[in-house]
Fold these 2 entries.
Entry 1:
Amino acid sequence: MNPIRCLCLVLLFGAVQAAEPEWITVRPADNGEALENPGMGWVFHHFDNSVQKYGLPLGPAYAGEGWPGLSVAYLRLAWSYLEPEDGAFDWTPVDTVAQRYIRAGRQVAFRFSCFESSIPYATPEWLRNAGVGGRWFRYGKGVVSGPEVPGATWEPDYDDPLFLQRLDRFLAAAAARYDGNPHVAFVDIGSIGIWGEGNPCTRGYPLSLYKTHIDLHFKHFKKTLLVGMDDWHPRPEFQRAGTYTSTFMVRGTPELRGRSLHVKVGIWLPGDNGKDLPEHRLLPASAGPDRRVTLGELAVADDGTMAFAPAPPVGTASPAADFAVRYQGFATRPGTGLVTVEWQIPHDLPEGAKAFCHVGDAEQDIRQNCGFGTGRNEALDYARSLGATMRDDSIIYRKGFRYSSDWMAQDFWQRVPVVLESGHYSANNWSDGAGQDYLAAIEAYHGSYISIHGPPGLIWKEHEDIIRQMSRRLGYRLQVVEASWPPLGVAGHTIDIRSSWRNAGVAPCYPGGNPAFTLKDANGAIRAVWSHEAFPVRDLAVGSPDEAPVVTTTATVRLPDGLTDGEYTLFVSAGDRDGTPRLALPLADGDGERRYRLGTIRIEVDAEFRIHWEEPVHVAGEWRLPVVFETLKPLPPNVVPFGHLDADSRIVRGLDYEIQGGPEVLRQLGRHPGYYRLAPPEGDTGKEYQILLGLWVQKGRRILPAGGEPDFRISLGTIAFSPDGTPTIRP
């Protein structure tokens, strides 16, 4: 090799290396806005308790406006509204409202309840007339004599065979319309208890009955997400004479830490049935004057660990006692303590009798009401085993109350979205820090859906700041922490796009999906889409606020051959494997289709030739267009120039070309002068034509030009011919 030529190559290579530009790096800021995404969002209780709340006062056109992040309208309606006559279904009440929200791009969710406090018959009256058993009940009083009592409502026997048969038929009809419907976010299993929350008021039921209702819903709703209740409390045969074992669960809440607390249990009879009893409580075999039995002392350390010291045995049991109870054992699990007791019931107890457990101290006798249970929600566990998620409808349901079922959510949130429901805003207007409690509940439960349980305009006006904070943590929130790419790419070659992602929400991205990058040209046309299938966003872990781990990934993508020289815009999105955006990202500069602008990249064509041209000249009685073909790469044999005049996207005339040395010289690197003969098409009437030039291999492909169009032709612009044949070219 010529040493001078070699030296030039070395110097050139070194210059290229030194001049290689740094990558473009952007760090998009989270815009702080609420997101409307599948599997998460604010849920407005449009129908609640009755058709009167809370959507009716907003008028017939309201569809969720004015509350960023409102993604679901919750339609909780009594069965009686939808099957007013035996076998005659009327879906108008829900479909009419649903269409408003669906048209606005939102979803709906359902609960079909069988017992309400505001209407006499949530279960259709025709079922009672057909012989289904049940009792009359007045909220706040208990079981009453009948419908003549003001405010009385009818609770059916949820295990009545005819009731179950007709419920089966109703759920089949509902599922035929709504199961698998993409506009339906979820359906509650709400056929037991007052308001459908799972707590019967006039009698207790064993676990088997809850399983029956759960099975009926899963029998028909095979695709749509079903939701179980945290208030499901199946009762063992506790009211019948015999010996039983049960467990109370003490939650290790912050207010218990650093305290020594007494644990006392008993049985009470709510409503009018217990009004003649001291404190509404049944008589224990041995207890204090308040009819509670002290089980022992619970010590909760500052770090939340627990220890239990049983109380010494008490004296002789009273023969008139309704029950005896004794301590059996204590166990712990993260954040909770489990106190197991044995009950001895000498005779059947009155209907409605319930066990209770109080944890307190001298300063505050009841710091926690542990309720009666097994340490597990067995009915909810069963629903979970079939694929359901859970709802807690007890978040700040009254003043001074926070939440109590967050321990249940730990078995759900990593797999399915958890639903949270606050109390009616009229009962707790988020005063005394309840708004912060609601935010804390999102963190504790890893909540994805959260309720607007009152007039949305009023709540937003009074609590906009805390609502915006909640929206930034609710569900999942995919952030693009950083993205990098080279400033220059060559068509037909690959580039790397590096991106760093974080889930800044409290829950996984349940719908899943992948990042995608989209390339648009100056006209906004999509010229390339690259889905990064190797990076599932579902796998992004969650963490405490601002502490979720960041994951960096690299997508190697190929720039299409058909791109022309120029500047293109790079967008990022997340969604389907085919690159369809489906998930909103908290980024500015969106294109309205859930793609978000990152920046620009310069694309060059890996051309085989380029052209240089001059204005037409008149030579030897003809008009000629001087053109120099510059060969950039070795070309195949039989390469010849071509030229076209196009009109209305059709070739109307070909142009002849003369090249010095003949077409074979085009195979040699360098410049090759020549010219095209310009003449108007036959019958030209002063039209304008597009003039396009190029090279092609006879009976083969066109050759890739620098700056060419996708069809491998170079457009010079438009050409028009005067009546005497003079051509004018306008680039």
Entry 2:
Amino acid sequence: MAIRYLIAVGSNLGDRHQFIESAIEQLQQKNVRILKVSSFLETDPVGAADKMFLNAAFGCESDLEPHDFLKQLLSIEIQLGRQREKKWGNREIDLDILLAVDSNNQQIEMDTKDLQIPHPMMWKRSFVMKPASEVWAFTLRDLLATKSLTDRVLSDPSVYVILVAGLLLRFFFAASIPFGNDEAYYWDWGRNLQMSYFDHPPFVSWISRAGQMLVPASWTYLSGRLLVPIFHFLSCIFLLGIAENIKNRTLTSKETRAFHIITQTIPAFSLGGMMLMPDIGLILFSTLALWLMTSYIKLPNLGLRQGLLLGLVFGLAGLNKYHAFVIACGALIFLLVHRRYSLKSDLVFWISLLVAGLATVSPVFIWNAQHQWVSFLFQGQRGVTGDGLRVLPAVQTLIGEILFLGPIGAIGIYMILVGLRKNNGSSNLLLAASLPLLVILKIFSFSSQTLPHWTIPAFWVLSPLMIFKIGENNTSDLISKMNLAANSNWNPIFYLKIVFHKFNFIMQKIQRAFSNSRSIPTKFGLAYSILVCIIFPLVLSIEFSRDKLISLLNNQPGGLGEMTIWNAAERDRQFLDLAFSKNTNELISNSPSCPTVDFIAGVRWFTAAQLAANLPNHPMILNLDRDHLSYYKFRDSDLIISGCPITIISEMSHINSAKEALNLITSQNLDIVIEGHSDRPIGVVRGYAK
């Protein structure tokens, strides 16, 4: 019974043309009928290979069954001198079965340890598909018979079961944990959509608004965070795609386990998947863009469609956070250098990418043009307005980053940074996209205030490399590395190298310990992650346990109170009665510019945001902060409050400054202690602004 086969052939050693032609000739000598041979295609090396490949494809017909035909192909590889010393390494000849059709024109499907038909990775490899399309008329049946995302889910459900379980857990946390100050601020943005904002581009407000439209107002926290767990889930999917594109194969079970550990248990990534922050959209669209680029990087030509799509995605990343500009520049410069010999043929791609990216991010430019470029000026000055070299704040930021990454994440990043020279191809694309942002923020941390979470998007971009680094046991001999000279004289650099390599030696020991799932360091790392990513959020998400935690802190929760106090105030009937009860001695304003409902104000931007999110019916809250520019200044720039009744609600430490700034005529002053928050007394002042 004759079977038609589609074969991919490649070579990157010696006389590549001759190797391919010899392989085809030897098949003909073994009674294999060659139907059609494609043109030859030269492509960049992949995997561990470091020389240019010559690829082709051909259709043939043989009476041998697939396993026997595979043995025939392997014997030809051996005869032509192939030695399988390194997986994905250089090779004299490589022959792969892509597709097979029997005499009844039925697709042959096979999935064994030695042979998979159709080839599971063929659709992801442009250097395979381009020549293959010259000799085989691909049909929908071919596509459906090939390993796809759906097949992967069904054949290895654990990969996605864990992701779905994480998604559901994050939905629960998103619906139950009180807003942080920044989250309440972005939630309030969603009620007043603009083309951009002073602090950040607008996409986070669009996320918030979409949730508020889909979720009842009584579910305040979920209404703001509804899309956040979904964005995290999608980011994980695209991250998995990047890792597979880098390796040109599906992940091994060990790599899949590392993927789950990184995406689901590293605090910086896991907690970010349930919090309403601009980073979540930046991470999603940056990951999608890099997934596209790891697919594009091997294409012989890039055109209009690829340019428009990549420009759109990078533009969407730019609508989330200005960090996207650095990530995009690093990635695109790498792509430009990598494809410098194809610049002329790729010209349409680059033009369309630039046009699509600028068009997508244009709302930010339009808004800033209307507001004296205030966002660009503000963000541009953040890293250069410090008071000289400041080491301690930089060290504090570094410690914060380590805590965010946890032991496993910190070790993983360390392994990436010390192994930079071993990366190539798509791995270098990720380094080009992430390292510039890391370096810039590190430099800024020595001269101006930076926050630990600012580097999280860069660490996320590096995480596919972390998947492959975690578990490696590449320890090295300290003595041989140093090449110690018996009669060496005093040399400061020499001893600095000793210190560095000693540190490196210790870190490699830690690395090897982490590679063993039963080791104490791994158990400690996972225990830390479970505590931070599951147990602590679980305590905060349940009202009883949250109140119990506060009582264990002697009703003085400190920094935690910034998140919990306004949720507790919403449940404090005494506070609500005092804050909103009318004083009979109050004057009635006759000013026509005053609203029918009294103004309510906070003294800081975060107080205004938390009051708006937590008070009944979510009233509009004014912000009386004169020292810090925020979204509220632009929103309330046309409001006239002079002569109008106003109620100021804020922490007592802020009240007096607001009264002085407004020259307030007060009719009522209240001092309220919210249950469980004795360290943060709340002041309520009612009166008129002169």
